[in-house]
Specification:
The protein is of the alpha+beta class. The protein has helices spanning 69-75, 135-143, 151-174, 187-199, and strands spanning 7-9, 17-22, 28-30, 35-38, 42-48, 51-56, 59-62, 85-93, 100-103, 108-111, 119-132, 148-150, 213-214, 221-235.
């Protein structure tokens, strides 16, 4: 006989943890009347056959057809039934995770018509805060099938999306910005150029030191990015 999960929670959350599956191996056996305890800054998502079905917010939940409408309909449970069913439960950490450092390596190539050879290399560094915004879509995209999902598991993909977004913003805006400084320019000139450029960006995409701004990196992640340094490598 399978062991029915009567009460479950997940309290030992790692700082860089995004999602944690219960049980860690195999699938869980549940019944209507089982209890799921969801902590503050958590969500819990039931997954069956690879499909994210129902989500629970913070609190102590007694499973029923009322809070599991999709899953209960899928498995054909009666309203008062206590028939065991099999599913995975993913606890999702909704807190902001540790900051991720990033940098443009290789540098971003910017067109500078009328300056030198018409091209300059831009080097930027910064940090990004990451958190889960849309629980269901995040679980579908990243967590299903994984016992534990940690920040390092998606770090490379996030950085790739970030640099692609920043590169597009900077390259498009540089064409309308003030002239690029040369390699011998002082840091203050680079800052003035940076300020001129960022001040003309759309409000939702302004990037400048100590002013984190949301970037449209993903439909289900909240991302606040700050550029901590901007410099040029001279004309290429």
């Amino acid at each position: 006989m399978p062991r029915i999960i009567d009460v479950i929670d997940h309290v030992n959350i790692m700082d860089d943890e995004l999602a944690y599956r219960e049980p860690q191996q195999g699938s869980g056996d549940w019944r209507m009347g089982s209890q799921v305890i969801v902590g503050e800054s958590q969500a819990a998502v039931f997954v069956r056959a690879g499909q994210a079905l129902d989500a629970l917010g913070p609190g102590r939940h007694t499973l029923s057809t009322a809070n599991l409408p999709i899953l209960s309909g899928l498995i054909g449970l009666a309203t008062s039934g206590r028939t065991p069913f099999t599913a995975d439960l993913y606890f999702v950490n909704l807190k902001d995770l540790p900051q991720v450092g990033w940098g443009t390596n290789p540098p971003i190539v910017l067109e500078t018509p009328g300056k030198g050879l018409g091209v300059a290399l831009l080097v930027t560094h910064g940090v990004i805060d990451i958190g889960v915004d849309d629980t269901m879509r995040f679980v579908k995209q990243y967590a299903v099938g994984k016992p534990v999902l940690r920040l390092n598991d998606i770090k490379e993909r996030i950085q790739s999306m970030l640099l692609g977004t920043i590169s597009s913003l900077l390259c498009n805006q540089a064409r309308r910005a003030s002239p690029m400084p040369t390699a011998s320019s002082k840091t203050s000139k680079a800052r003035r150029w940076r300020s001129s450029m960022t001040n003309s960006l759309p409000l939702a995409c302004v990037l400048k030191p100590s002013n984190p701004s949301r970037l449209p990196l993903s439909r289900f992640l909240r991302t606040n990015c700050a550029i901590t340094s901007v410099s040029t490598c001279g004309n290429a």
